[in-house]
Amino acid sequence: MTTSTGRADDGADDGAKTSEPKRPWHSLAVALGLAARGRPGWKPPGQMNELEAGYAAHLQGRMDTGNVAWYVYEGITLTLIHGSKGSRGSRYTADFAVMLADGTLELHECKGFSRGQEKSLNKFKQAAAMYPFVFRLVRKRGKIWDYAEPSKSACATY
Fold first, then answer.
1. Given CB 3.0 to 4.6 Å as the disulfide criterion, which of 6, 76, 83, 112 pairs with 87?
2. Is 88 contained in some domain?
3. 134 domain residue, yes or no
4. Nearest 10 degrees: CA dihedral of 99, 127, 115, 52?
5. Dihedral, CA atoms, 137, 43, 114, 147, nearest 10 degrees?
6. What's 33's DSSP letter?
7. Alpha helices in the chain (DSSP H)
8. SS3 label, residue 50
9. For residue range 50-91, what is the model confidence (pLDDT) as tens digits?
10. How many domains would you assign to the chain?
11. Full-prediction pTM beyond 0.85?
């Protein structure tokens, strides 16, 4: 067998490192027992949960009909509070950045109906008050995707 460089591959391990992607969150999750425990609502960065995967399929359908020009999952992160001396500060990453057919850029946040989401909803509302994007809270009710805009003045939970 030959490799992409044209060299013959004899199967011997020459000590080269594998190209498996690094997942720093995984070792932390295992160390904290979060991966094994299956903490509700927690997922590794870049990996969609069931609700988000369903919404991605919905956005793809809207793209196919021409209502959506483009979308990306966890593609935009906004700084809410700058950190100091090594601290990252506070950040908000939108579930989806969506560009409509007319060029409007919206940030969509998918939420189910579970408790314990106050912190993420407050970050969503804080980002909506600070940045000039259109923010939409997306919830699924049966087979319908429901959109709501956050209140720009209050950081109360929905």
1. 83
2. yes
3. yes
4. 20
5. 10
6. T
7. 24-32, 34-37, 50-64, 118-130
8. helix
9. 999 999 999 999 999 999 999 999 999 999 988 777 677 889
10. 1
11. no
